[in-house]
Each structure stands twice: as C-alpha cells, then as structure tokens.
Structure prediction request, 220 residues.
Amino acid sequence: MALRACRAFNPDTIVLLGDWMDAESLSSHAPTKPGIRDFQEELDHAKERLDELDAFGAVKKIYIMGNHEWRLERYLAERAPALFQSVSLPALLSLHERGWISCPYHETFKLGKLNITHDTGSAGLNAHRSAATDHMGSTIIGHTHRMAYEVRGKLGGEPYVAAMFGWLGDPKKVDYLHQAKAAHWSHGFGLGYVQSNGVVHIVPVPIVRGECVVEGRLVR
Prediction:
C-alpha cells in the first residue's frame, strides 16, 4: 500500500523514521523463536525493500536510524568490541552508495524547520509531544507504531507541529507482546510539503483496510 501511495505522490524526498530493520536476531530480549532468522537474512530483506524505494528516483533520501537498527551497535559493543569500528549498518546496507543520508540513533535530522528523529526517549501516546517539547519546535518521530498529529502555537505567530505516523509492519508477525497491545498500533505514513521559508507542512495518512487517501485520491 505504501509503495502504491508513493507512486501516486511521486516524492522528491523520502524519509524512513527508523526500525526499517527489526534486527530481532541481535535483540537483548529473549528470542521468541530462537534460530528462526539470522542477521544476514534480515539484512537481505531490508536491502530488497530499499531497492523498491530507490526505484522512485527521489532527489533526497534520509534514513533515520531507530533503536532496532541500534541493536547492531550495542551487540558489537557488548560482544564483539574488536569489530565496533569496522562494522556499521549504513555500510552493510550500502546507504552511501545508494545515495541515502544516514542519521544515527539518538540524533536529529533537520529538514527545513522540521526536526526528524526516531525518538527522544519517550514512547506511548504522548511521545510526539515530548519530542516536540525537547526540540522546542516542529518534530516528527517514529518508534511508537502509533499515529497522532497536534499543532501548538498562537494566532499571528509560527505554530509548531508534533506528529508520529504509525508503522508499516505486519501485526501477524508480532509475537513479542500481547496481541491486544499490538492492536492499538496504526498503519500509516505521512506526506510533507516544504515551503521556500523552510516550513514543512505535514499530513498524516492512515491506512484503513488496505486503502488510503493521497492528495484527495483514494489509493487501493
């Protein structure tokens, strides 16, 4: 669905908000199905999905690293420190060669006046508000698998936006928490329109039963 919407929108810029890779094989949590997947398989799958995004020919592509991508760094630091300086996920995914800008986890990418990061340490229903408060300005986050959008400010001034856009995963494959909790997550993504003054107008796009609306058009 997101790929079909991307074709309809034809973006100049593509931003991944993190956790594009699950990196379950490197998780510090006890595995739910030990040995089912290894890291190379996950890496190959992520590269195939990047191939699909690369095909759109966007002028700018930004990969915000999430806490799941960060699992590789943590794994190397704890279990293979001799490899920490020579192994990195951006290199394994060939992001530079693909033309992607990589933003490390715990850092923020600035697109015009918009702050984009995976998270600032908060999760749950109000994580987007906390992130916007931390940045003291318009902010988009990933991390929560939820969708929310809020505008704050005063008339006559420049308001700021706090938003999170849901996720694009398969809930049937979520086995590390109760299904009742996963049911609160939202499928979706966001669109953005950059003004010449650096203001970015963002639009949340929920996916409902395999359909969404992009610029007034129903995408199925």
Summary: The first helix runs from residue 2 to 9. The helical segments are 2-9, 39-54, 70-79, 89-92, 95-98, 127-135, 179-182.
